[in-house]
Amino acid sequence: MEAFLHQITSGLANGCIYGSVALALVMIYQATHHINFAQGEMATFSTFIAWALIQAGWPYWGAFFATVAISFVAGVAVQRIILRPVEKAPVLTNVIVFIGLLVIFNSLAGWIFEHTIKAFPSPFDQKGALANKLFSAHEMGSALVMLAVLGALYAFFRFTPVGLAMRAAAQNPESARLVGIRVSWMLAVGWGLAAAIGAVAGMMVAPVVYLDPNMMSGILLYGFAAALLGGIDNPGAAVLGGFIVGVLENLLGAYVIGTELKLSVALVLIVGTLTLRPNGLFGKHVVTRV
């Protein structure tokens, strides 16, 4: 029974990370109606930056917050320099740009930091107060960090003028422009926040899966499954989808299909959701009058 409970609690800890990646995907999707295929590679590159700062002698949390800030600025720059010119381009053009960004960030990470697997430190003492029978210290710590990030984002979008403006720009760009909101800049801030969220997720998952240029490939797939399962147009539901995916991954991997086939859980969820319930469990049903 204790092993079963540990699988559930470990799945919930992983679900925090999957939910945060799903949230980053939903933020970009709501503003552009496109999936950012480069989200995982951008997070990996940010994690390499944190690793380089730690190797240079920075304290962990100093490197952590510096990386989040750098990632935010980089996300804004990517949107303004690379994506802004193709905002109104056909869908296929945007897809090609996203795939190009994926290849660029992956190649840059391998070129600059090499393809050797690197150990990334955990900031949480494995024998500290956070460790218990159901959670390891890193699982508990990473879950608390991701929940703090999600809570801060909720407060930002709910109570700040910039957050409200971003929500308005995503839901109705034309009306937002009429009331003076700079929609293009709101989109850039959204890209910056998505990049920062990805950086946090990368730094939390790196001590578990180790750091290499392809570290986030599987995590992105789980995040995509979570976003689709919860609802690609519903940020809160996407986070909830992350918890569901995390628990399912652990339980099925431990008791049904084995750890070697755990990634197939995400693939089955993606195909099943798109086939049976394309709007997700809590997504909006959009009816268009023609």
TrEMBL record:
Xref: InterPro entries: ABC_transp_permease, BCAA_transport_permease
Similarity remark: Belongs to the binding-protein-dependent transport system permease family. LivHM subfamily.
Annotated source species: Pseudaquabacterium inlustre
Protein's recorded name: Branched-chain amino acid ABC transporter permease
CDD domains, alphabetized: TM_PBP1_LivH_like
A Pfam family: BPD_transp_2
Record's bilayer topology term: Multi-pass membrane protein
Subcellular location: Cell membrane
Keywords linked to the UniProt accession: Amino-acid transport, Cell membrane, Membrane, Transmembrane, Transmembrane helix, Transport
Transmembrane segments annotated in the record for this chain: 12-29, 60-79, 91-113, 140-157, 185-209, 263-282
